[in-house]
Amino acid sequence: MFLQTIPYPQLRLFFDGMLCMMALYALFSFTQHRRAIYWQYALYILCMIITFYWDDIDYGKANYLPGTNFKVVIVESLAFLLYIRFAVLLIEIPRLDPFSNRVLRIMTIIIAIEMVADLVLYLTDASNLIKSNNYIIFRCVIAFGALIVVPRILKLRQAAIGYFIAGSLFFVLGCLTALTINFIPAVFDRNPGNALTFPVTFMEFGVILEVLCFTLGMSVKNRKNELEKIDAQDQLIEQLLENEKKQSALMRIRDDISRDLHDELGADLSSISVMSYAAIRQMNGQESGATDTVNIIGETSRKVIARMREIIWSLHSAHDSVTNFSFRAKETAYALFEHQPIELHLDFPPEEVDSRIPAEYRRNLFLVYKEILHNIVRHSQAQNVYISLCIENDYLDLTMKDDGTGFVYRENKSSGNGLMNLKQRTSAFSGKFSLESEPGKGTIVNVKCPVTPGSDTI
User: Fold this and answer.
1) From 3.30.565.10, 3.40.630.10, 3.40.50.620, 2.40.30.20, which CATH number describes the 319-458 domain?
2) pLDDT tens digits, 130-142
3) Cα-based angle 263, 265, 271 (whole degrees, multiple of 5)
4) Which one of 39, 214, 269, 391 is separated from 286 by 20 to 30 angstroms, measured CA to CA?
């Protein structure tokens, strides 16, 4: 075997060098990541190197008993404490298995009690047999705790667990091999020319394999953490983009409000101001027709109030339900056709519909609906108008049909500004607009608007 040809001092130097390099790697990782697991990991490796050095000396003594060297026991106990802490941080035991975390805390307290007991035995100069028995008892208790925790850890779904268990297995196998060969002095005679005759060779080799597994486990965990950070960043970017879209939608709504206030209300308010001065002059006897002017002022004021109500309604969040839109659509149709020689036929849902129209859609949808009704009054010369509303496939389906004169309409052909405006407003709420008309056969206009489930179903 290859290791049999290597002198023990050279192999120990090689193994110690490997462990020192791994400890330095852990320290460099700590400077980059600033996580406690790295410096604790480096200190654990250092404790094992020191333990192997003193164990090598103790194994050469006559009548050797484990646990009689106070320095070895203290450093070894410190290594166990760091080992437990390393497992807690690597596998996230407190979050994944609180019961195992409590067991590990108890094990930590037991190790601390053992260190105090060893100090007392050292200061009182107790016999080696008592020291060894004390050492063995506490180690058996720690082993029992490990037997409780390890099976529970195996059930956790963590990528680093496999590396941790494999590393721990290598360490245990190395220690068991070293313990076994102590009782076969004829074969394991500690020949300096054969590294395999020394117990520490197997212990240190087991620790090297353990450290390699732990390093791989930390790399896997770091990779997982990086992927989680990337996912979190992607979600944050997606949320920021969504917020930007909402902000853009709000800005468009503000621009629409500003334009509507200027175009629809500004001129009427200015005319009210001008006519009020005219009425004053007329009432002072300078001119005639004061009553007609006041009537015009009143009519214009009512128009302003009606338009202001429409703007407020379209913006109020409480009016986002399909049922509320249906009520407003009925009210508008009745008011518009009240003094017209046109018979109105409505087919709206008889019950409340548990769907809502997004706020950024509702205003443009209502303006499209209102503009179509005005076009019917102005141009259709119809005797009957049929308006129906229903919900199909997450769309509000609004159809308006008249039996008027109709007109020549061809899809994908140039059309007037009115139709272009209707199509643009429909596109603004991601809707669908269709129109069918022929001379003498009336007109059918269909508008579809996306809706979302109501608050009770979200």
Assistant:
1) 3.30.565.10
2) 888 888 888 888 8
3) 105
4) 269
